Amino acid sequence: MWNNTTEQVIAGNLGEHKVWSPDLLTQQAIGFIDRNRAQPFFLYLAHTIPHANNNLGSDTGNGMEVPDDKPYSDRPWPQVEKNFAAMVTRLDAHVGRVMAQLKKDGLDENTIVFFTSDNGPHQEGGHDPKIFDSAGPLRGIKRDLYEGGIRTPMIARWPGRVKGGTTSDFAWAFWDFLPTAAELAGASPPKGIDGISVLPAILGRSQAPHEYLYWEAYEKGYQQAVRMGDWKGVRPRPGGPIELYNLKQDIGERNNLAASQPEVVQRIEKAMAAAHVDSPQYSNRSRPGRG
Q1: What does CATH list as the number for 213-286?
Q2: Is the pTM of this model over 0.70?
């Protein structure tokens, strides 16, 4: 679903009108919960917001498409930022409706709910992430492999199991969700995957971390990144030097320590080479070490 709106034909006197797809997704999710309230279920609700309608952004300069800009209509912000804020507030309301349905069906005390994002803030559709300081102290935005592009919070709610108001600095990634969900369901995850169950960390128990986490991206030209404990290595272009940061001391990735830590850089470079797998879907010119 590329845009945030979808056409739905309504029979009767109303004729045809537009319905915002996140509203429909929430409506369907609520119905799913209610229909399955008497049995275990898994619901994956993937809202597109606060994504931009990039076609509309190209045409008008404002791709933050939302039914209205309330409650921010009178704020002294550019219109695109009013729309963005309204979109985030609307998402918050959608989450509230889902939680209210769980409570209505008597499920909110024995249902684990995860909430997260697939990337950091974006600058699409005319939106400026600096307006609301969306990345905070982190460097970069969506499609960067600096922390601002890939580091997002994960909220977990499970009354009686996950202690409310607590935080964890255990580093994990989306590929860990499948084995985590499998453990929660009492099932075995597929063999040969990179993910690990992080249920112990979610429950506040000690857990061994990954040896390293690896990312690569092609949308802005080939990039690689590896996190090993507090060390983070970033290669922002193919064949280029690896930048090295200590995230515990430098969460904003401003102080490149590569020159003073050659052994750490070497370990990270080996991890990048080991984790990368060539794909026929991408040009061989983008492979590590090639210009």
Answers
A1: 3.30.1120.10
A2: yes
